[in-house]
Amino acid sequence: MTSIKNVVKRMSKEVRVIDIARKNVVTCKPDARLPDVAKLMLDHWIGSVIVVNDKQEPIGFVTDGIIFMLIAKGRNPSILLARDVMVKPVQTVHQDTNASEISDDQFLRSKVHRLAVVNDEGKLVGVLSRKVVDRLTTYSVARRIIEDRG
């Protein structure tokens, strides 16, 4: 119990999105071939790749689920590009947003349970998954319970 109490007390009450976002984001360009995007997913053990334009602004997501669906429907993914299948528009959140301000609606609108984290110029600086926000919410509730008990 003591270790949980210490961890929860150390947590900042003001957690910025960039503090909890994954920063080493795997991206591709819109003209990337789908087999190359799938290889990126395999090489990095991830389920989605963010499609960015030349300015490094997020414009779409390609997910493993999309690729599986194409194969299941008998389509040939080798002839498709990221732009042909990407989920768009991308839901973004500014890197300095307080994590407590992230709503379930933002994730529901994203269709991929991830938000692209952007800086002031709109450039991709990270990705935030719904799982991470859910964990933070759980820890915040635990902190309140511990603080209430003294």
Give a structural overview.
The structure is a single chain. Helices cover 43% and strands 18% of the residues. By secondary structure, the chain is α/β, with parallel strands linked by helices. It has a single domain, classed as CBS-domain, CATH 3.10.580. It has a three-stranded mixed β-sheet. The longest helix has 20 residues. 24% of the residues are buried.
Give the SSE map:
Elements: H1 2-10, H2 17-20, E1 27-28, H3 34-44, E2 48-52, E3 58-63, H4 64-72, H5 82-85, E4 92-94, H6 104-110, E5 114-118, E6 124-129, H7 130-149
Parallel strand pairs: 1-2, 4-5
Antiparallel strand pairs: 2-3, 5-6
Short descriptors:
disordered N terminus; 6 strands; CBS-domain; alpha/beta
CATH architecture: Roll
**Widest sheet: strand ordering:** 1-2-3
Helix content: 40-55%
Low-pLDDT runs of 5+ residues are 1-12
Task: Sketch the major β-sheet.
Answer: 3 strands, mixed
CATH fold-level label: CBS-domain
The CATH homologous superfamily is called: CBS-domain
Number of domains: 1
Estimate what percentage of residues fall within beta strands.
15-25%
- Highest CATH level, the class: Alpha Beta
Compressed to H and E, one letter per element, the order equals HHEHEEHHEHEEH
Integer average pLDDT: 84
Shape field: elongated
Question: What is the helix tally?
Answer: 7
Radius of gyration of CA atoms, rounded to a whole number: 18 Å
